[in-house]
Amino acid sequence: MPVPVDRRGFLLLSGAALLAGCSAGHQASTSPGPAGSARAAPSSAMTAAPSSAPPSREPPALPDVTPWAPDRGDVTPEAKLAAARHVERHGNGPDSALQVIEAQFGGLLPGSASVLVVCRSWRRAGGRVVPGGATYDVRLSRSAAGWHTTRVHPSHPGPARRRLSPDASAVLRSGRIDLPPAARADVRSGRVHDSVLAAMLRMSQRYRIGVSVVRSGHPLYVFGTDRLSDHPQGRAFDTFRIDGHLVVDPRTPRRLVTSYMEAAAAAGSYNVGGPYLLGAAPQWFSDRTHHDHVHAGFAQ
Questions:
Q1: Measured between alpha carbons, how far is 246 from 243 in angstroms, rounded to an integer?
Q2: Residues 182 and 245 grouped into a single domain
Q3: CA separation, residue 279 to residues 41, 263, 265, 271, 283 (Å)
Q4: 127 and 195 both lie in a single domain
Q5: Regarding beta strands 294-297 and 112-125, do their DSSP bridges make them parallel or antiparallel, or are they unpaired?
Q6: pTM score of the predicted model
Q7: What φ, ψ does residue 295 adopt, rounded to 5°?
Q8: Per the domain annotation, does 258 fall within a domain?
Q9: pLDDT tens for residues 208-261?
Q10: Residue 203 in contact with residue 260, Cβ under 8 Å?
């Protein structure tokens, strides 16, 4: 069910609901370092009585975060910026910090859009900093005044499974597959098909993969249609960065992106989308929504 766009919903999700999906390898380090209390120096005549007050402790420091900015190759950057700023406003506060990792389109029509805002977050709790993160499907509408947020659908990866398939465990251990918190939680939930995981592992032998979205946080239906998306069924993953190059960046070599798309098809994807059209549908597709990432969908 969609949730109202309020700050409480963002903090609960980024802090508590997705803790199972975050690993130390993908979380910014913090240095809580509580300061010790000062003692009075003894005089030559007498020693001061010990204070009964508890030692003072500084609250643990939150990581520094920076505002997200569109890339020079972004189509309709105003929509992405409106979505990212909405998430940032609700996720940053005195006891919380949120960093937008990526904002990619989940759908784009002339008067409406879905922007998937992929985040890592931290919150203070019990004298320590707790890491978390979520992906938000931010829905927007366009008017003469610009783009405005209408609804926010947060990711719900589900609880972590005790026993994972060998491919799921290998993906989580891989140093060549970068998963944001919600995507990592998706894999740990056991609800991502092995066809997707096996493809990631196969493609990571040749490329370093920056994944944006796997299952949760993506629209249930292909945006603007009544067709179910492969993502919520655990049968697709999106890549926004290849070998350190953003797919959306016009400076990224075209051949790097097209070879990656071809590798996804060779790994079993029946439905490969991206900024370039490489063949006939349904095997290949390209549109404005996919100018900023490569989609790889799997039949099972």
A1: 9
A2: yes
A3: 80, 14, 11, 11, 7
A4: no
A5: unpaired
A6: 0.82
A7: -100, 135
A8: yes
A9: 999 999 999 999 999 999 999 999 999 999 999 999 999 999 999 999 999 999
A10: yes
